[in-house]
Design brief:
The complex is a heterotrimer of chains A (160), B (411) and C (150). Chain A has 160 residues and is of the alpha/beta class. Chain A has a single domain, classed as 3-Layer(aba) Sandwich (Rossmann fold). Chain A is 42% helix and 17% strand. In chain A, helix 2 links the parallel strand 1 and strand 2. In chain A, helix 1 runs antiparallel to helix 5. The two termini of chain A are 20 Å apart. Chain B is an alpha+beta fold and 411 residues long. Chain B has 2 domains: 100 residues, no CATH class; 211 residues, Cytochrome-c3 Hydrogenase, chain B, CATH 1.10.645. In chain B, the strands form 3 sheets. Chain B has a 4-stranded mixed β-sheet with strand order 2-1-8-9. In chain B, helix 2 packs antiparallel against helix 3 and helix 4 packs antiparallel against helix 11. Chain B is globular and about 65 Å long. Chain C is elongated. Chain C has a domain of 85 residues: NADH:ubiquinone oxidoreductase Nqo5 subunit (Beta Polymerase, domain 2, 2-Layer Sandwich), CATH 3.30.460. The chains are: A alpha/beta (160), B alpha+beta (411), C alpha/beta (150). Chains in contact: A-B, A-C, B-C. Chains A and B meet through helix 2 and helix 3 of A and helix 1, helix 5 and helix 15 of B.
Chain lengths: 160, 411, 150
């Protein structure tokens, strides 16, 4: 299985498929995410593709604070993604609730509801920051992959 | 859909048996919509309550974030009400600067809409090019205010940033370039048969219905409803500018497209006037921390339509009440009417044509079939795919236009 | 006489009880206070005779013992007529104005959810803007309501 796993991980690192989900945002971050896909910033050169369904996505990109209406749906979307999966919180509202933190219909940032792999602050997070965040996430995947490889080699060498 | 055996709308991602707060509930007969129910509230953040518990200046930053596309709209509308209650007279230069940012916002918003509309009908090249042009506006806004979005331009009593002669030159250069490109968008919108065929007769609202249902902004103006707050209830510097209110009589999505691209041309005109006639002087007056008791109603013509704010002050540092009625709330009530007796495949563009904030369209759709009483829940992306395929099967194909567009715009 | 003054005169001539209750704080803004029972008559007159045919929104206010509601009507010339009525908080019953303005429906639903108003004659439909499982009797925009600390 190992060679196949390598290919899958390489594909994931080289071209993560993204599902974008707005959990109650003002849309500023949503538009900066989409702007990241347009020619000026062109995140597609990293192989990043926007997908429509959670079943095909590797990365869930969330914008907005979590409103009470959207909470259940966010959890369900997360659960429908196949492992391994990653969540990116785009914008200050996704990170912590932002300016809406103590509002009555707001639960808080994304991590109050699902685990978050990367936080990209900003109000809104600019496309450059979004790209930076995605690249860091990809690099950490690569890093984890090589760490896992190194650990395994150690184990083999150590005769465990 | 039950009638067609070739294509089945896939279910999910959510299981229909689970309780789901659908945004739209559609009753279908065959492929035609019998009726639509709309459920709103997903973005309800409790801003109005939060305003009562923060100072006026804090509220300015909060209100700016009601909508990320119209941030200057909401901030200005709010600050106008507060200034009226406090009896503050914003200096003319401040008003001109506010108006400059307002029109730049309108341009970025309409270009954004053009791209979204292109995407909804399968004309993706339009999305790429209009958003590339939009970056010119974003650069200009960042140059003048320090941010691409949420400009923080306003303060109570005026504006926070002045403009230098060098910046003015940059603005004019940007406008010249955009005007060239927009002329081509107008040509494409009004002369390309594929576009005309795709958008005509879709999302129809007659003049009488637009009046009765109170459509605002370009949605109303495309049905001949001659209302524009900039001319009817002038605010900021609009009283001193010369511009046309664009109306159209097509009453459909095609008309809404025409109105928006022509409004871009009017905005370019206005920006040139603003730069040319920019008055000298201060950009703000000092405002008190405590706003005396009083109330005011402020209106603003956002790119989407009329925005209304009501503010009541009680002599303290925090407002007694802030009420916001955004334009999409008015227009979304017209959508029910637009979709009746129409094809399900037209739903994406009809909703996009009122230019709602994105989050309003990222909703689940519950479909009830008349023929077998079944119902299923689909998501927006699925509906989008269905719509594109349905129209392709009926001869609407943008591949040739995409290529032509790319050739022409790659200069 | 300015247009605002003309509107004021027409209203006072038609409804004598409005004498002294109509205020023009600045151009294009008219405010008036009246009792709930007069609301329908005034709205009908303002809409049909005075051509205030655009309902902007309805604002709810918590004024202690009372809940007040301001109906904001606009005229094509840019004038806004703001009609304020008050009801006891203990019995905040309103009649729907959807027969005059179809768009009132969503603004009235907001009053129901956020202030606890009871609007008679409101057509059946989804609530707005709160969730279906929002606790009963909790009205966020009332002054004495505070979000529970979690």
């Amino acid at each position: 299985m190992h060679p196949i796993k390598k290919i899958v991980t390489w594909a994931r690192i080289k071209s993560p498929w993204i599902l974008h989900f707005n959990t109650g945002a003002c849309n500023a971050c949503d538009i900066e995410i989409i702007a990241a896909l347009t020619p000026r910033y062109d995140i597609e050169r990293f192989g990043v593709i926007l997908k429509g369904t959670p079943r095909h996505a590797d990365v869930l990109v969330c914008s907005g604070p979590v409103t009470k209406q959207i909470e259940d749906r966010l959890v369900r979307i997360y659960e429908q993604m196949a492992e391994p999966k990653f969540v990116v919180a785009v914008g200050t509202c996704s990170c912590s609730g932002g300016v809406f933190k103590d509002c009555y219909n707001i639960k808080g940032g994304i991590d109050t509801t699902i685990p978050v792999s990367a936080y990209i602050p900003g109000c809104p997070a600019s496309p450059k920051a979004i790209i930076d965040g995605v690249v860091k996430l990809l690099a950490s995947l690569e890093d984890n992959e090589s760490k896992a490889k190194a650990t395994k080699e150690e184990k083999v060498a150590g005769g465990k | 859909m039950p009638k067609s055996k070739k294509f089945n709308i896939p279910m999910g991602p959510q299981h229909p048996a689970l309780k789901e707060p659908e945004g739209f509930s559609v009753a279908l007969k065959g492929e035609k919509i019998l009726g639509v129910e709309i459920r709103l509230g997903y973005n309800h953040r409790g801003i109005e309550k939060a305003c009562e518990q923060n100072t006026y200046i804090q509220d300015l930053y909060l209100i700016e974030r009601v909508c990320g596309i119209c941030s200057h709209t909401h901030a200005t509308c709010f600050v106008q009400a507060v200034e009226e209650i406090a009896g503050l007279q914003v200096p003319r230069r401040g008003l001109y600067l506010r108006t400059l940012i307002a029109e730049l916002e309108r341009i970025h918003s309409h270009l954004l809409w053009l791209g979204v509309a292109g995407h909804e009908i399968g004309f993706d090249t339009l999305l790429m090019y209009s958003w590339r042009d939009r970056e010119i506006v974003m650069d200009t806004l960042a140059l003048l205010t320090g941010n691409r979005v949420n400009y923080g331009m306003n303060t109570i009593g005026g504006v926070r940033h002045d403009i230098t002669p060098a910046q003015s030159k940059e603005v004019l250069k940007a406008i010249d370039l955009l005007e060239e490109r927009t002329k081509y968008y107008i040509e494409v919108a009004t002369q390309e048969t594929t576009i005309i065929k795709r958008l005509s007769g879709v999302g129809v609202v007659s003049y009488d219905d637009a009046l009765r249902l109170e459509a605002v902004g370009p949605t109303g103006r495309a049905s001949g409803l001659d209302r524009d707050v900039r001319r009817d209830d002038p605010y900021a510097a609009y009283g001193e500018l010369s511009f046309n209110v664009i109306t159209d009589n097509h009453c459909d999505v095609f008309g809404r497209t025409i109105v928006r691209v022509k409004e871009l041309m009017e905005s370019y005109k206005m920006i040139r006037q603003i730069i040319k006639n920019m008055p000298d002087g201060p950009i703000a007056v000092k405002a008190p921390r405590k706003i005396p008791a009083g109330e005011a109603v402020s209106r603003y013509e956002a790119p989407r339509g009329e925005d209304v704010h009501y503010v009541k002050a009680n002599g303290s540092e925090m407002p007694e009440r802030v009420k916001v009625r955004a334009p999409t709330l008015a227009n979304i009530q017209v959508v029910k009417h637009m979709l009746k007796d129409r094809y399900l495949a037209d739903m994406p563009i009809v909703i996009a044509a009122i230019d709602p904030c994105f989050s309003c369209t990222d909703r689940m759709i519950n479909i009830e079939y008349d023929s077998n009483k079944k119902s299923e829940v689909i998501n927006w992306a699925t509906l989008h795919e269905y719509s594109l395929k349905w129209h392709r099967d009926r001869g609407v194909d943008f591949s040739k236009l995409n290529k032509q567009f790319q050739r022409r715009m790659s200069i | 006489m300015s247009q605002e003054e003309k509107v004021k005169e027409s209203l006072v001539n038609k409804f004598g009880y409005l004498e002294g209750k109509v205020n023009i704080p600045r151009p294009r803004r008219i405010f008036l206070d009246t009792d709930l029972k007069n609301l329908a008559d005034i709205i009908l007159y303002a809409k049909d005779e005075l051509r205030f045919n655009h309902l902007l929104t309805i604002t709810g206010l918590d004024e202690g013992e009372n809940l007040s509601f301001i109906y904001h009507l606009a005229h094509d010339s840019g004038l806004i007529l703001n009609i304020k009525v008050s009801v006891l908080k203990s019995s905040p019953v309103l009649k729907t104005i959807t027969p005059f303005f179809v768009s009132a429906e969503i603004y009235e639903r907001e009053l129901v959810d956020l202030f606890g108003a009871e609007v008679e004659g409101l057509p059946a439909g989804n609530r707005y803007p709160l969730t279906d499982d929002w606790p009963q009797g909790e009205f966020p925009l009332r002054k004495d309501w505070h979000p529970a600390k979690e």
